[in-house]
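Lecture 7, part B: from sequences to assemblies.

Below are the input chains for today's worked example.
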Amino acid sequence: MDSIEFDAIIRHPRTIIHIDVDCFYAQVEMLKHPELQGKPLGVQQKNIVVTSNYLAREYGIKKCMSVQEALQLCPEIALVNGEDLTHYRHYSAKILKILHRFTPLVERLGFDDNFLDITSIVQKYMNSGNDSELNISINMEDENPVGKVFGPFEEECPCGCHARLIIASKIAVEIREQIYKDLHITCSAGIGHNKLLAKLVGSLHKPNQQTLIFPCSAAMLLSTIESVSKIPGVGQKTTQLLISNNIKTVDDLRKTPLEALEKKIGIDLARKLKDNAEGIDETVVKPTGKRQSIGLEDGFKSVSLIAEVESRLGALLRRLTELAMEDGRIPVAMRLTVRKHDFNKSASGKRETRQCALPKYLLPSSKSGVYDHAKMLTLAMKLFHRTVDVSKPFHLTLLGVAFTKFEERSSGKNSITSFLRKQVAVQSVLDISSEEGVSDINLGSPMSVNQDSNDGSAMSTTSSPISKSIGTNNQTVDDDVLNEIEPLPKKTRLEVWLSGRRESPSNEMADLRLSPSSPMQLSPKIDAAVLKSLPIDIQREVTRSWPTTSKPKSNNILKYFIANK
DNA sequence: CTGGGTGGCT
DNA sequence: AGCCACC
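Predicted structure of the full complex, as structure tokens:
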């Protein structure tokens, strides 16, 4: 037995707390809507109730249940739209700040799931009865843990972990109390000597509770969870792989010899799972740094028109650049995500992504402080054309855009890189201005193409930055990427009209929505004229009925304007 | 009739 | 770039 294995089995040197915010989205929504206090509440994204408060759960509402199902179980449930994650992100950041008061060793999984390695904090309390930096008093006299304890209380482990875990349970109370005091948000906690145990044990008693596990109960806890799918890291695919090998429970996993398992599922996975089955997990708490990507997605029933793709991407990009500004770092790559409608499966198809560099001149200059949204959209559309063959009909069910790499800034805003970047930015502004005329390119007005009047007539007399830059084929020094873009077809009236609509996130086509009870907002006359103005291939595309699971659609352009949510 | 994010591995 | 996983 080597020393690592030795450590894992009879020494338990680390002390880990897992903090899980109770039904996070639902709690945030209850804070936003105090009038819903005491009522069952669900958070809805598209047709899904992604989470609910505990009152709603009493009716049997589960995570990611369809709205219809949820309403059947609990007709009086209040449903709140949770597609915009801004508030959740906000609270998540506040929670992280509180956790950082205790230790920088915080690993986040999602917005509401955190591991803290408090080994050194516990050590300080063990040594001196307090932590000089962490100004929190802990009752060292009481030898009993706070909160629940999983498993029988057996004799102390010779490595001394019992005392450490008991102190940790008191620190967990402090953490939860501080989060509640500052934010009025409740959390549950799990305390153990590794991440696996801390996470699993914390889920035993919720909400607003905490549970400790001593190492001697580890194997028992793992037996208790039964299904292998409960092991963190074992998702749908791995579960199916294991089940196809007749392994359903953790005990099945335990009974399978390592050598046999390695042959079935691969050496790495086999070793990890065999360890986990015994409650062994040596993975470290990896402090979560800055996000590696910042992205937004929008899902929908179907998008088949380039104009709508452009419109939706424009909306996503505007919000994305806001997020990037909040983040403060400078993105240097852009990724586009699409999900194509899959006719073979009733469920959603797989995603495809395309990435490209984000040229420096697209970044906010220190002068204007804004992104050039028009060129960003042009770049995103270039990625789109690289992903989707628009010469054939396409039916997308999701569009996403993300910034995926960020400029390293060695120091603050006076660093040499920052200085150079400003010079470049200013230079590129000058270049554009001198070639196009300052009045034509409106750097200070993001996405003017989409923020112009709702009345499409304005668009016919004012050229957008996009059409301008294409029409003049401008060759600024920094156009090394954009000048490769094949010229977009001149905008049709339909496209102009569509892209000129004011949008709201996830509701871009609201103006186009037709309901049986409301009069049509698009007159048949305009309809025909718009249709005629389309290129012939687009006409065919727009008027073609595409196969669906339901009855064939009529050859009427209006159906493409009917709400797709 | 399945959400909107993230990160890691290959 | 895709797959898988997590919340």
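Note for the exam: The domain at 3-221 of chain A is CATH 3.30.70.270 (Alpha-Beta Plaits). Keep this in mind when comparing with the next example.
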